[in-house]
């Protein structure tokens, strides 16, 4: 994939659960008709790419992540024809679409599994992972992903008279990726959706997909990453500029491996992107590590954890990108933080046991976690959008939607989109008892108060702010692909950094605390404000003899040599922030 095709490096992604977004036919369940009607909204919000959560035929016991047919649309959401209409209308507006590819496992209702369990001689038997007996000791590194909801990764199937392997729920039998036939099926599924015009796939559970499933000899892959490399080759051959956007929540030392590297070097051990050549596995990785540390920084009101995580993250090879997010539609997983960090996050943002899940996560949306404080919410997203990578929002983030802790598990954060103050939040005309999930009603986050219609007409609303932010982010390719350097400041509550690329140089400064403060930075040229309201002024005409480069003294050959606009003081209110462009090269 040539540089000109790397649209994803600088695109805002927006995750949509079709079922909860907009109901076009009034049956209480979101569908493609409703979603297509809302494309004008997405266009004015300024997002570049929609990621659709699974909408395939499914018993829907895990929000559609239990697929029983990879080639269709669940009746509740419409038809394949409705999907095509949607994809075409999105394309007309310049909005790309990626779809979830859930091939670590199927539903137990998938015809492959039904045939596999009924007939030991079926060609589908080896599509799954079987054992005659339970292992003597549970595998310490391969426990259930949802502790408390599942207590084993092996379940007995009466018809098969054997145990099958499932890292997720028992109704999601794992596919045996070591079987070449299964890999061929995966290629076919990708080929199908690429023909329908999608711009790529969000690869579900990529880490577990290539694991040695069940620790069995028969599932051991000679070259686990070869599976991902092969998928990438296929997508490039068939998909023009389509991408793989992966869920790979792995340990920091293994993360870089998922980008791949054409030089054969392990990204996690390499020093620079240039040394790694072009990535040849996943184009984009969901940045779970950054998420956890960013939330820790918000909890501590200190910038330290952001510095830490930028050091922990492996370098990206050419064309590799992070998708940065604060919340998604699962739990906020803090499991990769040190134990005391986890406790701090729980104390700050999930003080009640009921707000926590799986011993590692928080089942709340961001707005309530931040007490609905509009300044702090903007600070959090401004920071997110300014960090190396490209941003991901989940539907409803842009209006500050809340959650419903009365709903079970992760469903708490999956309530219907709040379009207006009308009945059912404008999500559906069905009787409220018919809705796929209840809308959040009453209180600070109820649809009566928090909704698109109310915010659309208010220039100071979060929605309007996000529309500006999304467009602004598109104008700052330095953030997507530039080199990031953290700048020295005195106050530990302040995070200041700059992003430099061929395009130019953006400097951002954020105050994580509710105590006003200030930060002084040496800049190479006069700053132009991009975002935020912090006042700034020049306090010294030159940098006082130190070499100049936006604050920490290493003139770096970025075209700024010799330039010196002196020191600038930024006055930061509570949760104040500011982005400035210091130089533009085009
Ligand atoms: C991913 C999804 C999650 C789902 C799981 C099983 O982690 O994000 O929602 O439950 O995969 O498919």
Task: List how many beta strands DSSP finds.
Answer: 22
| Bound small-molecule species | alpha-D-glucopyranose
The overall pLDDT average reads: 94
The parts where pLDDT drops under 50 for at least 5 residues are 552-562
**Helical percent range?**
25-40%
How many alpha or pi helices? 18
**C-alpha end-to-end distance:** 24 Å
Looking across the biggest beta sheet, what order are the strands in? Answer: 1-2-3-7-8-9-10-14
Radius of gyration: 24 Å
Query: Main sheet?
Result: 8 strands, parallel, barrel
The fraction of residues assigned to DSSP E strands is 15-25%
Which secondary-structure class do the elements indicate?
Answer: alpha/beta
Q: Quick one: overall form?
A: globular
Task: Explain how this protein is built.
- It is a single chain.
- The chain is built from 18 helices and 22 strands.
- With 586 residues, the chain is α/β, with parallel strands linked by helices.
- Helix 6 packs parallel to helix 8, helix 11 runs antiparallel to helix 12 and helix 11 crosses helix 13.
- The two termini are 24 Å apart.
Question: Would you kindly provide a brief summary of this structure?
Answer:
The chain has 18 helices and 22 strands. With 586 residues, the protein is α/β, with parallel strands linked by helices.
What structural keywords apply?
binds alpha-D-glucopyranose; 18 helices; 586 residues; single chain; alpha/beta; 22 strands; 8-stranded parallel β-barrel
What are the SSEs and their pairings?
Elements: E1 13-16, H1 18-21, H2 32-37, H3 39-45, E2 49-52, H4 80-92, E3 96-101, H5 111-118, E4 130-131, E5 154-157, E6 162-165, H6 180-195, E7 200-203, H7 206-209, H8 224-238, E8 243-246, H9 252-255, H10 273-276, E9 284-286, H11 288-300, H12 304-312, E10 321-324, E11 332-333, H13 339-349, E12 356-357, E13 361-362, H14 366-369, H15 374-386, E14 390-394, H16 452-456, H17 462-474, H18 477-481, E15 483-487, E16 494-500, E17 504-511, E18 517-522, E19 528-531, E20 535-540, E21 567-572, E22 577-584
Parallel strand pairs: 1-2, 1-14, 2-3, 3-7, 7-8, 8-9, 9-10, 10-14
Antiparallel strand pairs: 4-6, 5-6, 11-13, 12-13, 15-16, 16-17, 17-22, 18-21, 19-22, 20-21
Helix pairs in contact: 6-8, 11-12, 11-13, 15-17
The structure holds alpha-D-glucopyranose.
Alpha-D-glucopyranose is lined by residues 62-63, 65, 102, 168, 204-205, 247, 330.
């Amino acid at each position: 994939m040539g540089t000109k095709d790397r649209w994803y490096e600088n695109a805002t992604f927006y995750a949509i659960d079709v079922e909860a977004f907009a109901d076009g036919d009034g049956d209480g369940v979101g569908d493609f008709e409703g979603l297509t009607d809302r494309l004008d909204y997405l266009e004015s919000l300024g997002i570049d790419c929609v990621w659709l959560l699974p909408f395939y035929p499914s018993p829907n016991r895990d929000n559609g992540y239990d697929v029983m047919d990879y080639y269709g649309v669940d009746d509740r959401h419409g038809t394949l024809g409705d999907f095509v209409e949607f994809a075409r209308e999105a394309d007309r507006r310049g909005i790309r679409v990626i779809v979830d590819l859930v091939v670590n496992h199927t539903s137990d209702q998938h015809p492959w599994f039904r045939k596999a369990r009924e007939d030991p001689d079926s060609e589908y038997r080896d599509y799954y992972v079987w054992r005659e007996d339970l292992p003597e000791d549970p595998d310490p590194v391969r426990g259930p992903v949802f502790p408390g909801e599942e207590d084993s990764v092996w379940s007995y199937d009466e018809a098969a008279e054997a145990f099958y392997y499932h890292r997720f729920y028992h109704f999601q039998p794992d596919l045996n990726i070591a079987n070449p036939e299964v890999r061929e099926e995966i290629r076919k599924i990708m080929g199908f959706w690429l023909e329908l015009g999608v711009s790529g796939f969000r690869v579900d559970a990529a880490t577990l997909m290539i694991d040695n499933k069940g620790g069995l000899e028969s599932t051991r892959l000679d070259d686990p990453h070869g599976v991902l490399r092969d998928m990438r080759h296929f997508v490039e051959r068939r998909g023009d500029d389509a991408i793989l956007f992966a869920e790979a929540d792995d340990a920091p030392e293994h993360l870089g491996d998922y980008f791949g590297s054409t030089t054969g070097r392990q990204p996690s051990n390499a020093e620079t992107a240039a040394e790694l050549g072009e990535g040849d596995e996943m184009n984009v990785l969901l940045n779970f590590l950054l998420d956890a540390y960013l939330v820790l920084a918000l909890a501590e009101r200190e910038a330290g954890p952001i510095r830490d995580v930028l050091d922990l993250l492996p370098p990206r090879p050419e064309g590799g990108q992070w998708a940065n997010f604060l919340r998604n539609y699962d739990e906020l997983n803090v499991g990769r933080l040190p134990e005391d960090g986890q406790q701090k996050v729980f104390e700050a943002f999930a003080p009640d046991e009921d707000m926590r899940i799986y011993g590692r996560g928080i089942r709340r949306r961001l707005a309530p976690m931040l007490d609905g404080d509009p300044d702090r919410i903007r600070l959090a997203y401004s920071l997110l959008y300014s960090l190396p990578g490209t941003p991901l929002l989940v539907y409803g983030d842009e209006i500050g939607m809340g959650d419903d802790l009365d709903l079970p598990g992760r469903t708490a954060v999956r309530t219907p989109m709040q379009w207006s103050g009308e009945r059912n939040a404008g999500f559906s005309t069905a009787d409220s008892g018919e809705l796929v999930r209840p809308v959040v009603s009453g209180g600070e986050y109820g649809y009566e108060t928090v909704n698109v219609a109310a915010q659309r007409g208010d220039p100071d609303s979060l929605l309007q702010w996000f529309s500006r932010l999304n467009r602004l982010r598109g104008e700052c390719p330095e953030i997507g692909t530039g080199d990031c350097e953290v700048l020295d400041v005195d106050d530990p509550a302040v995070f200041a950094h700059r992003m430099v690329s061929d395009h130019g140089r953006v400097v951002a400064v954020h105050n994580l605390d509710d105590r006003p403060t200030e930060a002084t930075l040496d800049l190479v040229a006069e700053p132009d404000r991009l975002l935020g309201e912090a006042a700034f002024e020049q306090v010294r005409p030159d940098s006082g003899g130190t070499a100049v480069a936006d604050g920490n003294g290493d003139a770096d050959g970025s075209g700024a040599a010799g330039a010196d606009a002196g020191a600038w003081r930024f006055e930061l209110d509570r949760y104040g922030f500011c982005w400035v462009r210091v130089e533009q090269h085009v």
